[in-house]
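Here is the promised in-class demo. Please do not try to memorize the tokens; focus on the logic of going from shape to residues.
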């Protein structure tokens, strides 16, 4: 179950303005003297310039919201992050049925933390008294011996397990209730260590920072990490219909309506086929 909420639709929009029009006119001279290669090169330059402008705009929005420099730290999630993950989903998902339970977080972060990733930001609480982000309350001190009380605040996360199926199923979304005592897992639900599909169960971005590119940041980093590991053949997720095009832009293929009934159903299957690490 994946949701960056409705504001994620903003991710693929580029706000055109008069400066953009000038940029296009300056970059491409519409004359017979330009050959096809030159035109293509100029088009690529325009695209790169727009991407830089979009990235700068996203960074500026994050800076404005946080009120201090945003230096993201992307790392695997661990069991001590459970409270922050729980707080993030409480803020990000309006429907309680779509949230991951505390026990599921405990199971997934204890069983396969290498498949779970978070975007954190170091915050000095004295400089963030007006920061209305609920994961600030659950943040843990940074591990640098600093004496200013700085903490590492979770802003976005991806939580996943492995499955032998090619799409996300209800069994993959579930977890063995005896996971604290039973080793190995023989229940037929939850994480399958030998599975070749990484099933993303949650992509959550704090609503205060949606539309700032954090969903794009963490998803691209995640897909690259899983691909480079060479331990999976694909990444799969389920999403609501209004997010189908959002995930297509990362390279996910839409496989139609999902059979999964988690949270009341109504999901769509999305699958990203991995190319595998580059051959040396």
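The designed amino acids, position by position:
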């Amino acid at each position: 179950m994946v949701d960056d909420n409705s504001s994620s639709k903003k991710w693929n929009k580029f706000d055109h303005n008069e400066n953009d029009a000038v940029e296009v006119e300056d970059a491409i001279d519409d004359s017979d003297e330009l050959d096809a290669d030159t035109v293509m090169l100029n088009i690529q330059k325009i695209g790169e310039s727009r991407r830089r402008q979009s990235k700068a705009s996203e960074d500026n929005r994050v800076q404005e919201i946080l009120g201090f420099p945003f230096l993201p730290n992307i790392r695997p999630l661990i069991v001590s992050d459970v409270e922050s993950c729980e707080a993030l989903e409480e803020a990000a998902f309006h429907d309680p049925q779509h949230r991951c339970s505390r026990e599921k977080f405990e199971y997934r972060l204890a069983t396969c933390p290498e498949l779970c990733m978070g975007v954190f930001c170091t915050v000095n609480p004295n400089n963030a008294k007006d920061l209305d982000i609920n994961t600030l309350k659950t943040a843990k001190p940074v591990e640098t011996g600093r004496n200013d009380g700085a903490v590492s605040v979770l802003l976005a996360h991806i939580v996943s397990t492995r499955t032998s199926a090619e799409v996300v199923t209800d069994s993959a979304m579930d977890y063995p209730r005896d996971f604290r005592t039973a080793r190995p897992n023989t229940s037929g639900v939850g994480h399958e260590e030998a599975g070749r599909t990484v099933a993303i169960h949650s992509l959550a971005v704090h609503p205060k920072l949606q539309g700032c590119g954090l969903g794009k940041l963490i998803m691209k980093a995640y897909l690259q990490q899983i691909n480079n590991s060479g331990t999976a053949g694909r990444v799969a997720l389920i999403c609501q219909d209004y997010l189908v095009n959002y995930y297509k832009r990362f390279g996910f293929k839409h496989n139609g309506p999902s059979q999964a009934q988690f949270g009341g159903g109504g999901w769509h299957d999305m699958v990203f086929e991995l190319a595998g690490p580059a051959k040396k």
